[in-house]
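User: I'm putting together a small comparison set for a docking exercise, and I want a reference complex before I start. The sequence is below, and the ligand is S-adenosyl-L-homocysteine. Could you produce the 3D structure with the ligand included, as structure tokens?
Assistant: Of course. I'll restate your input first, then give the structure tokens for the complex.
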Amino acid sequence: MYEYEPAALAELLVGEPRYRVDQIWQGLWRDGLDLADITTIPKTLRAKLVQDFPSSLTVANDVESDNGATRKWVFRLHDGATIETVLMRYADRVTVCVSSQAGCAMGCTFCATGQAGYSRQLTPGEVIEQVIFATRAAAPRRLSNVVFMGMGEPLANYDTTVAVVRRLHEHKGMSARHLTVSTVGVAPAIERLATEGLPLTLAVSLHAANNTTRDELVPLNRRYPLERLYEACQKWIDATSRRLSFEWALIDGVNDTDRAIDELAGYASGLNAHVNLIPLNPTPGYLVMGSSPERVNEFRDGLVDLGINVTVRNTRGRSIDAACGQLAAVTNGKRRSVTLRSR
Ligand code: SAH
Ligand code: SF4
């Protein structure tokens, strides 16, 4: 049902009084209810709608960590494809991390999703349902933030990403500060996104600021190298006047060197970008470790000394394979995890 905009919903319900359409819309969007729980509409209509428009998400796995502060679901979609969604409760906000594709075609070497490959695009309704599902699970707290950092490359599913951001803003009242799209750096799509007038924050997964290393970590860099990406970032800032952030997964001996500090500082300072550091979560297909906590701090201090704004993000949900794509791999039986604890 979350596939439909108000006009399309009204068309589906042709013959029903106008207020019914409003009741259903409010039930879905304002109250975040399952169709079956919208008790303001008659039972027979409800039963028919539930049958005709089943939820697109079936829970295939449900685990939690950080003493319940982090919860992660693997959902099976109607065609058997699996995606994952993570709910993170912080002191000051509740964030859901959504998938934009089933799998990912970008093939980043360190990423579990990249290692598993691509299945298909998600529809706007499939992404929105992840948000609504998490909204319910977050109660009584209010879900405040949505980040596109689950499976998939949101800018390789451009239309869906734009539709979801627009609808969450219009129908759920979410603001730009609270909607973050993370991209591996699809330069032309960043430039196009800049012209949409959308209320969102952009995060670019940089991970390396020299082309040799970035080519290895992020194959898309061969198509849109750092110079091209820089141009797109500049256009984003010029068009939106919004600050950009760079994601940097610290990998032991690969991108956590003193030289990397200088390169990153050089790249980020011209764009006045904020840098988010996170130690790499090891994955089975890439046998390199994340940087030690000491090195993470040294790396941060090195950047701060060069005038860069930095945040060290903690690795939420490490024990439930919360890094991109990992739990889905476990659920699909591709690998076993000793730390997995089902509810
Ligand atoms: N495709 C988009 C968004 C999904 S990935 C992107 O790449 O930005 C979300 C974030 O998780 C990215 O910053 C990605 O680089 C990071 N990530 C992927 N695998 C990781 C791992 N094993 N450890 C730490 N971060 C990882
Ligand atoms: Fe895809 Fe992002 Fe993983 Fe790269 S890091 S493979 S772009 S999901």
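The chain has two domains: 1-54, 56-320. Residues 63 and 341 are 6 Å apart (CA to CA).
User: Thanks, that's exactly what I needed.
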